[in-house]
Amino acid sequence: MNQPINTWGVAFYLILVTGIPILMYFLCEKIKLMNFLGVTFCCFVAGILVGNIYPRIWIKKELVNDVNNILVPVGIILLLLNSDFRKWIKLSLRTLLAFFMGVVGVIIMSVLLFLCFGTTREIAYISGMESATCIGGTANMAAIKIAFNIDNNLYNQIFLCDILAGCAYLLFMFTIASKCIGRVLKKYSPTNDGNDHVELELRNLSEPFKTVLLKIITGLLIAFVVFMVTIGIGITVYGSMENLDMAFVILGITILSVSLSFITPIRRNKWNGKTGDFMFSLFFCLLGTTVYFDDLINLEPRYIIFVLMMLIGSMLIHIILCKIFKIDRDTMIITSAAGIMSPPFIPSIAKAIKNNDLLAPGIAVGILGLAIANILGVVIVRLLINWI
């Protein structure tokens, strides 16, 4: 008798968590506070509430892991199919230089913190996840988790610490960042060295339902083919599915997806990005259901310190390098936000510093960060583990 009840309970759980991201997208459009917090954060919190209210016997962590192992690669593929390398090439040298200075700051801090907190495999994983999220975004942190099969408890702790640090970062950016950083870096002066050619595509996504459905299905099919081709190549290289290295899979889908983005019809299907966003919203909702209130109360202080030191340290290095290379205040702020907070936050940051000139370049380097963060994150973990 218990088996049918459990089956129905698990089925209802899956339907519930699938519906939550849809509800959150709607609520974030209507409620300013939720829009500020973002769909990802709201889905994660909703997942935590479900996980602590819903009967735990019906939440199968093994099932959550299996589903997430598919959601993350497919989500990455869909997001990267919208990449536009031509826009990145057209970016001004100043914006690109400032962004890569931020990347250098993250890499330096990941190594320093690895040495300071202990040269263990756990710290190597944390360094890799934090590097990926500070260069790209939460999607990249999830990719590193999947690539190295990082324990859920460790990942959840670091993700929660990252949310807390991200809130502090946003508060700083929205309030006193411009004045504080302006004491060190020069003021922004408009330039025509490439930004005029970088256009932000704000296409109206209101299309007939059949057209939308066809585009979503097409994107999912392409993502499935890319995923399966990468798995096939991986099995050929490693000899079997059991020996397959997920780091290889993440790198493979990144390279193949960016390559396919050069095909114009694929790149212009903006529903690929929307579907990819949904995949990650669902991922964080599912992940939230495995976090219990005890986990929040028992956050490891050293993890919080690690994440805050990574954030503050990389920002300070970024500012110092921008000072040396005479990069202005606004460009530094936008490129910092592009990496640490990802592209969706750029419009709010640009509005806060009252500079819409850097809106499109900021979003473009943010997308560039999403593309390279997986590779850099995997390389950092590999190098640090070999150091042990």
Which SSEs are present, and which pair or pack?
Blueprint: H1 2-30, H2 32-37, H3 39-53, H4 61-80, H5 85-90, H6 93-117, H7 121-135, H8 138-147, H9 152-175, H10 177-182, H11 209-238, H12 246-260, H13 264-267, H14 271-288, H15 293-297, H16 301-324, H17 329-340, H18 346-352, H19 359-387
Order of helices and strands: HHHHHHHHHHHHHHHHHHH
Instruction: Give the percentage of residues in beta strands.
Output: under 5%
Derived from helix and strand composition plus strand pairing, the structural class reads mainly alpha
Annotated CATH architecture: Up-down Bundle
Total number of β-strand segments?
Answer: 0
Describe the structure.
The chain has 388 residues and is an all-alpha fold. The protein has one domain (2-187, 206-387): Na+/H+ antiporter like fold, CATH 1.20.1530. The protein has helices at 2-30, 32-37, 39-53, 61-80, 85-90, 93-117, 121-135, 138-147, 152-175, 177-182, 209-238, 246-260, 264-267, 271-288, 293-297, 301-324, 329-340, 346-352, 359-387. Helix 7 runs parallel beside helix 9. The longest helix is centred in the middle third of the chain and has 30 residues, at 209-238. The chain is globular. Mean pLDDT is 83; it is low at 192-204.
